[in-house]
Amino acid sequence: MSGKKSAPGATGALRDQLDGGSAHSVTPLDGALWLIRHGFPVFPCDHPRTPRCTGLHRTCDGSRGKHPTVAFTRAWTLDERKVHETFSRGYRNPAVAVGACSGPNGVRLLVVDSDRPGAIEDVASARGEQWPATMRVLTAKGHHDYLWVPATLKLGNGLGALQGEFDGDVRAGNAYVIGPGARHASGFRYVVDDPERPPVLAPAWLLDALVTRPHFEARRTRWRDASHPAAGQASRSARGLVAFVLDSRPGQRNNRLFWAACRAAEDGREDAREALLSAAVQAGLDEREAAATIRSAYNRTGATT
Fold first, then answer.
1. Whole-model pTM above 0.85?
2. Which of 69, 22, 23, 61 is nearest to 43 (CA)?
């Protein structure tokens, strides 16, 4: 990617690149063309509006719109003609082949996938750092932040020391992310937050965290502790989430509580709410703050409290 900027006058949404349409009118073809014109190799994924999943896998896991329809590590393209052929016929979502993308001086692409708005900013703040302004694609749950990393640094999808601290994932190497113009199963359209903002170099603290091994021993012991009072308030299926909150360290407690409450809400674990609240208080959170976090998580996932 050359760092090329969009046409003058873009005001912070991909739709400004696309003849003044609304975010809902941005098509997969629009998104794929924008990506390759900015140096990001693309390939097609399943689209939620097709009657059946068109991904290469044998069995769909239900995450419609996210499964590659080609062998993406070698079938990606930067060719505009091919993009027109692929995305003009039928429903296909555009995706970015992360490992195939290189930037200035050979740097490689890293995408930080936040499962909720501001998740990576919260991690940075807890570490006394500031998250840089970089290329961001808004997703159904949060956002994808695009960053450059040195080519000599071999990263994958592991979170390293951010395991249990960050509500999301990272994508590097032989990985992919869904791109702007794609439609989520919920109906949400992925869109670039600011087309004029290119990826920046990943901050050193993030790279250090990603290459640092997570500390699992103490956490594994706590997760098995079914005798803890908070764990006893939940069903067996929810006890892992309770132990996850109990094992929180200062600076990560609210993030971990939010993540656990989201998982409990998604699984319909109504019995977990009081147990999570008890665990959060025992971990050191204020009861009213913890209750608000749990309520926010259940509301976000469509559950009620």
1. no
2. 69
**Residue 269 corresponds to which tokens in the numbers above?**
């674990």
Structure token pair of residue 4? 């090329």
Exposed/middle/buried for 166, CB within 10 Å: 0-12, 13-18, 19+?
buried
Confidence of residue 15 (pLDDT cuts 50, 70, 90): very low
Distance CA 15, CA 181 (A): 10
The radius of gyration computed from the CA coordinates of the chain, to the nearest angstrom, equals 20
Q: How high is the mean pLDDT of the chain?
A: 80
In this predicted structure, the answer to whether residue 26 has a pLDDT above a threshold of 70 is yes
**How many Cα atoms occupy the beta-carbon half-sphere of 61 within 13 Å?**
5
CB 122 within 8 A of CB 255: yes
Residue 97 near residue 155, CB atoms below 8 Å: no
**DSSP per residue, 208-266:** HHHTSPP--HHHHHHHT-TTSHHHHTS-GGGHHHHHHHHT--TTTHHHHHHHHHHHHHH
Dist. CA 30–CA 6, nearest whole Å: 14
Strand positions, DSSP E, the chain:
42-45, 93-97, 108-114, 135-138, 143-149, 168-171, 176-178, 191-192, 200-201
The candidate with the shortest Cα–Cα distance to 203, out of 129, 298, 103, is 129
